[in-house]
Queue: 4 jobs
Job 1
Amino acid sequence: MSVIVEQLTKRFTTGGTPAVSDVSFHAPSAAITTLLGPSGAGKSTLLRLIAGLELPDSGSVRIEGVDCTHLPVQKRGIGVVFQSYALFKHMTVRQNIAFGLETRKQPRGEIEARVDEMLKLVQLEELGKRYPGQLSGGQRQRVAFARALAIRPKLLLLDEPFGALDSRVRIELREWLQSLHEQTGVTTLLVTHDQEEALEISQHVVVLSDGRVAQAGPPEEIYDRPATPFVASFVGGTSVLHGSVRSGRAEVGTLVVAAPQSAREGEAVQAFVRPHDIKIAKPAHGSNELTTGRVERLKSVGGYVKVLLKLPSGETVTVEVPRAEFDDLGVVEGDHVHADVRMAKVFLGDFAI
Ligand code: ADP
Ligand code: MG
């Protein structure tokens, strides 16, 4: 329990909606915790409150058991990396990494040794004499990590650190960050709007929506047991379908799925269906049996094919079919197909997410 945030609230305008509203969570020691949520959810504000770059209206922040709520940034023992590189352009890579150590007035020899160690850690030994302008985006971000880690922080705060990079570099750095974390073991808080990044990198996920915690837990739990309709729709590329309870089951258009036990006959439901939890099949040739829907669009993405299925109700469902399986299916746009839902998360009621 290395970072403990309790009932943190921050408003930017008096009487306005808080950017961060009564937020409490624990970020376990030596783990990567992600703060996951859509744009405007309050992730950056929360991180800035923990860093001491903003002051809360109420609530507290404890780092390693020390109440830091009113401590200045420099006294919190944190390293920060933002989306924009924020390196000093007129300083070399070495000078950038040394910066925090110099402001702490460490002996020259120790600073040089630490900079060498950091360059090695981020695999940029050869580039110490370059200026930020002579580096790629990915390399600059690695320098930013080296600079943040040089001061031996108790806590590393990362605000969408790979957000400005192209997708190939982003995925490379995602793996790099995991191995960096294995080597340093520094407690890390990572802000991201990318649910795949959150589920892949972290041991603990805090999902934020409108300045509040929607759910917190290990990634598997967030994915498999979303606590609210918001989490169910935000995590997992989910389709949302409307329907009602008939004979103890949830009927959503032409699909039928299990309903919660407390469901009453006729009650409105919303089913959240993941793209890989639906199986489609072609009806037997020449048969006129009832099908689930019509294939509106096919799109091939990497190892699988995305099928956009339109139900008679007008609602659409996205289905992902592994490529080999898709080739066997022989489905083309315009075909009418059967669809079977392997698993869906059903919430009672008719509400907006
Ligand atoms: P996220 O990082 O999740 O996209 P932010 O924390 O940046 O969200 O913003 C949350 C809310 O707070 C937004 O509505 C945003 O407009 C508002 N906000 C953030 N910073 C400021 C600020 N300095 N002044 C006024 N409003 C702000
Ligand atoms: Mg942000």
Note: The longest strand covers residues 293-301.
Job 2
Amino acid sequence: MALSRLPLPPGCCASSGRERPACGLLSPLRYQLNFPDCGPACTSRALLALTVPLETLQVVKGRMMQDMRKGLCRQTHTQACMRMLPTFICSMPDGTGYRLCFSAEKGSFLVVELCQNYVRTLLVTLLGDGNRNPEVIYKIFDMPEDIVRGTGEALFDFIAQCVKQFLAGVDISQDRLPLGFVFPFSCRQTKLDKAELISWSKGFCCSDVEGKDVVELLQVAINKQEVYNVEVVALLNDTVGTMMSCSTRDKACEVALILGSGTNCCFMAEAREVEMVEETSGRMCVNTEWGLFGDDGALSDILTPYDVRLDQETFNPGERRFEKLVGGVYLGEIVRHVLMALAVEKALFIGSNVTILRTKDVISTQQVLDIIDHEEGMDAARRTLETLGLGPSERDCCRVQQLCRAVVSRAAALCGTGLAAILTHMCQAREMEQMAVNVGVDGVLYQGHTRVGEILRSVTGLLAPECTATLLPSPDGTGLGAAIVTAVALRLASQRCQVDQVLAPLRLSRADLERVQALMRQEMELGLGQETHANASVRMLPTYVCGTPDGSEKGEFLALDLGGTNFRVLAVHVGKDGIRMASDIYIIPTIIMQGTGEALFDHIIECIMDFQQKQDLVGQTLPLGFTFSFPCQQLGLDKAVLLNWTKGFNATGCVGKDVVQMLREAAQRKEHSGLKVVAVVNDTVGTMMSCGYDDPKCEIGLIVGTGTNACYMEEMQNVGTVEGEQGRMCINMEWGAFGDNGCLDDIITNFDRLVDEKTINAGKQRFEKLISGMYLGEIVRHILLALVSKQLLFRGKPCPQLETKDIFKTKFLSTIECDGLGLQQVQTILQDLELQASFEDSLLVREVCKTVSLRAAQLCAAGLAAVVEKMRENRGLDKLSVTVGVDGTLYKLHPCFSQNVQQVLQDLAPNCNVTFLLSEDGSGKGAALVAAVASRGVEL
Ligand code: ADP
Ligand code: MG
């Protein structure tokens, strides 16, 4: 058979075709070629084929680095061979050790390690001394061979039986035993205790496990054994366990290598490179799954015919190419294929029956390792070959030893190449010129022979000269590491539990929402009733707007908009071709908002005069619509008595007075004569009217901005506070005050109480204070403070900045909750508040924001559900189709608020088909539209 060298890959500096001893520099690789008696040419060719020159290794290293980068990148990660799986084991942004590696962990932990042909159970007791002197008891259970190819159920049942037997033999009096599961296969892990098996390897192929959560499978099997105190809390890869156990508090281990039956490597990547996870600061351990490297052909130029044949006999041909060159399970098989080929060529075992070599697995990796030993190796070779009935000669034994060395050396050299790729990658990602790291190593192949370590070290040194790697053999790596991770998982679980306790009162059940809906409905009825009206928390104020626009409105109007964030004056043209507007924004200084009523209205007139001047409207008397977004008892379209101020306004001498009258009086004081106020409109009504101009089905107005409120078209016969039974009238609900009579007290939390206490209208607008923009940031701020004080956030460090009222803006919620933008945004916002947020901190802050904004949306939906259901019943319909005109920055800009409102409303009022229409400048347009009809002398 032809065993010529495969051509070198392009870009490789060695001249092609020249046969020469591999890498002259690389003494550990050369020794196998210096053998004085190389025998027939085919034996040397075999040896040469198994020897990879340094130049080629360099190329392999480059390809591996490329594949790693692909695997880390969000766009290309599905095309990479190496999976680069995030493990959720992180280190501090300042680089001081693992966040998970807490020195205070204490207690007993069970570890189960699934290995090639056995299961190991350990009981590890951590004493809280920084894991210096853990007590470890363990037991090994041999696994029947057929289990690895049987059903998944049988495998997990077996593991669970091992656990049960082990526990029967140890003295342990802990009620609850947390278990860490070391599962050395590639899993898609989403949490420490949730991991779906992606695919089996290393000879395992149990049915019905791939794609399933192996933590759950193990827990179910354990429960079946009635070992009820054992709880699987963490799953980890063997590499991660090794890395953890080789780390001490003073000396972090940042890479771990497994060179056992299979091979794999994990390392601490810069969090920002791990694009599959939103962590951006610090480092996260990435499980490379490098056994898969080469599945795209990247190793094809070093594969020998023996490797190809071995691969074809496996259950996963074409897969895990790197592992099949390096992993222990395969080395015996590679040797068998080499011997078989040479025997066929009559280069070995001349005269013997060699058919035995056709049988799989007749040469074990252990035998190969024994054969390469300097002193006893020849004896081992003879014994092995004789047992196989191959009748070896002295020379056969010699050659077999050389071949075994070539196979093992190649494995070690490739492993060293992989390690060099990892180290160079880390060094580049950290932007360092030189780097020193500790590398934890475990696995029979590494520990079974010193030569393996020597080759590995020297190849790594040659290929990554900028890095100094200290190899640390892991003492009982995986087991101890797993116990540490388990301990930490437990701590995290208990923290989770405490966080849930803090947030529980803000999480409303469906029953809670139904109750809010029913209460709103009840308050609505009370507000509408003539006798009950005075004591209702939802005032249900008549607006004297009795219809929505029909599109025939025309004319020029002035409009005022007071009660939002800005005070505006508008000139509105309503024509056949639609509506055109010009407007100006005027500031109302706090001193005027909270000064005297006269000053406030004088200021408003001055603004109007300024506007008229700028717009060339001086001398014209245009009908004026006044959007006045405060609760008013309206006595006519142009007569509105202020009931109370909200949203930060508090001008004296206004409550109980007609706002139109106050405006007219101010005009007189300012000698402004061209003012014709025809309508006072609430912003909800304006919003409904402006959307109604485009959509005749719009019969509800909703505001969720600084405050929140709603209006809708009610049957006149239900409006007990206004004479007349015909038609409908728009009712300004003033629902922000819902709950002011105490009816919402059991859903109002302590955080809400703290927010309320510090407002200028404490005890008032309770519903609004759960929903609107003026308050959500404050609620979040109080929750964050509580979490800090319980040591659940920012490591419990006091946050003086966070004590400042209104420092946490509601618009932050929008940014923080925007999933696409990443946690970087959260960290930036928090940094501006002088808060150093870790990955977990950022996630927790996001969770708090989501909880608060979801509750706001749910409550808003419960209120709307009461409205639409009442409208449906009023009209005696099975199904109501209606549109809600909406305004308000919170509703419009928050990434999930509107969607949450719509979803919950659909759920609470399934018989109503509700469409939401965003209002564009409802206050201005709406006021003009109300004025348009009013000035025509036709009441709407
Ligand atoms: P108003 O209700 O006063 O007419 P807006 O509808 O513009 O005014 O609402 C202003 C409120 O919206 C502010 O109280 C602020 O808290 C909130 N807000 C501003 N920007 C955002 C944002 N990006 N996401 C969520 N809320 C915001
Ligand atoms: Mg507004």
Note: The chain has a mean pLDDT of 87.
Job 3
Amino acid sequence: MADNLLTVADGLVVSMEYTLRLDDGEVLDTSTGGEPLEFIQGQGQIIPGLERALYGMGIGDEMKVAVTPEDGYGEHDPEAYEEVPTNAFPTDIELESGMELQVSDQAGEVYQAYVAEIRPDTVLLDFNHPLAGETLNFEVKIAGLRAATAEETEHGHVHGH
Ligand code: ZN
């Protein structure tokens, strides 16, 4: 099948131009001025709500997709905060509000956390994703579609040019 007759389907390499805005119109991310995003469709390489909306699109097709928190980075969980004594952090780290940290629990499980607030003797960590609770408004355009190579399929990612 000629590439220009392809539509987005599992296992194809999708090349996608995109702009991502929050509900207030703030542009969070865009491929404008750079390279389109490339990924293998159907492998969870992009957020589920967006991936699902792309099926059947052809090269040159454009679409607006509003991804709810449920299909994006989850709802904001007011319980997902933890106050940690400042002296539990290595002294060579300069803690700043908004900073991203890797935190491991006693079982050695690693979590991503953000510094929500620095208090006199403690630090409040937020375990929510920074985009939790946000509706993600994508404008996308399919810039290219092609079959993945055997090697890409085996590796589960797109190889560079
Ligand atoms: Zn590889």
Note: The domain at 3-73+132-155 is CATH 3.10.50.40 (Chitinase A; domain 3).
Job 4
Amino acid sequence: MEFLVKSGTPEKQRTSCVVVGVFETRRLSSAAQKLDEASGGFLANLLKRGDLDGKVGQTLLLHNVPDVVSDRVLLVGCGKERELTDVVYRKLILKTFQALQDTGATEAVCFLSELSVKGHDLGWNIRHALLAANDAIYRFDQTKSKKDSPRHALRRFVLTVPGRREVLEGEEIVKEVTAIAEGINLARDLGNLPGNICTPTYLAQQAIHIGERLPTLKVNVYDADHTDIRDMGAFLSVAKGSRQPPKFIVMTYQGAAEDEAPYVLVGKGLTFDAGGISLKQPGGMDEMKFDMCGGAAVIATLQIAATLALPLNVIGVVPARENLPDGSANKPGDVVTSLAGLTIEILNTDAEGRLILCDALTYVERFKPKAVIDIATLTGACVVALGKHASGLLSNNNALCHEILHAGKESGDRAWELPLWEEYQEGLKSNFADIANVAAHREAGAIMGACFLARFTKKYHWAHLDIAGTAWLGGGEKGSTGRPVPLLARYLLDRAAQKSRSKA
Ligand code: BES
Ligand code: MN
Ligand code: ZN
């Protein structure tokens, strides 16, 4: 799908469909008014018959509207004008796409971007219309024998801006969102692929392919015997139960001076998590193919940073492996030595994410990072605490924490802070090692996971995003969401903007 912006008046659009809004009750938006005037009151007359009163998400497709050049006009109900929130706005775009799907329209010129959405500007409207459009058209059929034929003929989606002056700004945003959308789709594809295809080796190959396409992105993949890896006792222990070799993926994007401190992203890349000897219940275990979504988000974000040529240095690290039961797998009670030298008693082999992350988090110290964010489907407890709307955020630095919360709000890919107070650390005491990988109690599971990681991140500013609730949806809509790619992309774009502001 091609995204574009342009300015113009609705009745003169030579296109297959013009999309305009109608508020409750039967109040025409300004674009709809223009169509109405051009057509001699055709729309107002029609609405009087009661086919559409403007409730959120109602749609009405019209053909042959008099004196309007476009083949079709799609009216979209926008609800009460004063209650047009971001949630409603995204819904309108989704409904627009659902309605367009059933038509033969190859291009749509959508005036909904000119509506005024509570607390947001035109730029936000364009960004979020495009992201919602991208979500609406995403399909995953790589593992079906018959590919879904595209359900709609739509090739081009054009958003309008009020005047010529706004076109340039709009075009910048389209460029930016197109790169972000490609990243989101990549993360979704990697997440949706099953564990027998998307293995650690596959994940590494994908990262390498991306690096081959983007000259500013360097990709290294390390095997278990590499000098940088062989002392990662915690990371390596998780792979012992698997026939798939572990891979340690390092992606380096250089967009700034070589000596400038990088932003480092670390993503959990468990291509399948059966729990190991602490085996999971069978119900819903298939969803543990999504346990690499943190890693996928990191790979996707590095692709975005390089595509947009952000003036930053960004490093992505993805420790990838499977967690399966086997004769040589980790056993409850085993003690392993992490790269940091801390010994860990593995009380539960299903708390494997923190075992692979702790070594990756120690590894990244060498980059002297400006900030480190790890992204992980770490705990079921986080899903209990926050559900699917917010990722859990825990951090050892206030400023970083606020920047991430802000990026989440702006991108609509929200995070919510949980505490990381000293007192919680007590729960990780072990009689046999320096630290246990799980607490003896079941309370505060998401916090305890982060507390474990906090022991390995004292040397830099660090934040942990627990995406167990946000990275995928279950039930009838089962599938990867691509989150938190929108948040991470926004975070880096904000840092880039901050840098150019401080230079000016
Ligand atoms: N990948 C899971 C976390 C998970 C579980 C995410 C369910 C989404 C839904 C992680 O490796 C895990 O198994 N965590 C354990 C930790 C526990 C043993 C302390 C969990 O959440 O049960
Ligand atoms: Mn697990
Ligand atoms: Zn896991």
Note: The chain has two domains: 2-161, 179-498.
